[in-house]
Amino acid sequence: MQRTTLTFRLSGPHIQRDLLHEFALHHDVVASALDGDGTAKIAVQTISSPAALWDVRATVGMFDDGAVELEAQ
What we know:
2 helices, 4-stranded antiparallel sheet, alpha+beta
């Protein structure tokens, strides 16, 4: 099955840490921290189905209502 990676800029490193922990509990989801430019970011790879993509976006939104999706799919 095809997979998609969604990337988000987050409000801070504490949210990044919490989301990495949360996504570790999700089936068929691989999340990784993106650092380097001084902002907290996360890349989340999941199945390319509307439900799976919605689940990732909803989870990020529950943890950080200020999150911005950087690479919209």
